[in-house]
Amino acid sequence: MSDSEGETYEKQVKIVLVGDGSSGKTSISERFSKDAFNRDYNQTLGIDYYLKRINLTKSYNVTLAVNDVGGQTLGGAMLDKYIFGADIVLLVYDITNLQSFENLEDWYHTVIKYCASRKPLFALVGNKSDLEHLRAVKAEKHQRFAKDRDMLSYFASAKTGESVENLFRQVTAHLMHIVLPKNDSEATRIITAPIVRQEPTTPAIPIKSPPTTNTTRTSICNLQ
Ligand SMILES: Nc1nc2c(ncn2[C@@H]2O[C@H](COP(=O)(O)OP(=O)(O)OP(=O)(O)O)[C@@H](O)[C@H]2O)c(=O)[nH]1
Predict the structure, then answer these.
(1) What would be one Pfam family of this protein (predicted)?
(2) ipTM
(3) What CATH number does residue 104 fall under?
(4) pTM, entire model
């Protein structure tokens, strides 16, 4: 289907953020969905849920269902339900907190166990990159963890916003086998990107209308 025919695809992607409490999962989710940052720590009880629609390319609109899972849910009875059906899992740790990095091994294996029938795409996210001077996890350790498990890898700061939008765009594009241009900006806007492979991984609904311009809808609900 060519762009000249004016066809666009709509796709829904479920992204789940897991990792220790205070690593910054809520902050990353809120930076991405609302472009906001809260200095105060409000522990997530259960799960928070955000929706954001992005124009991934001229032909693809993607609604991202961002599931922010509370750090205390590891070992809890609900975690398997929160993770169920995940397309992408972000393993989030705090680069100033070694324990939060080491505990990702447990998070990883737990998610793998619960997603035995359909392995999601994993990405490692070292958050709080604005606190580089307090770094407790060497970048090489981070890279090795990601490489050994064949996952994507990012450093980000929910506080400054560095790389946050970018990482959501990239993991989504990777899932859909779309190569974004090198200059794909962190802003959500129309991209004149060539689509390398147009078939999505799961069926998408073609819509006969011109692509929308930068339409973003965000909603939040809190389940406990
Ligand atoms: N400096 C800095 N602080 C951050 C960053 N991201 C989050 N924080 C702070 O870290 C604390 C914890 O952030 P949250 O986003 O609530 O962490 P969480 O992983 O959702 O925690 P749980 O709800 O317990 O799972 C808050 O005080 C945030 O303001 C960041 O990128 N840089």
Answers:
(1) Ras
(2) 0.99
(3) 3.40.50.300
(4) 0.83
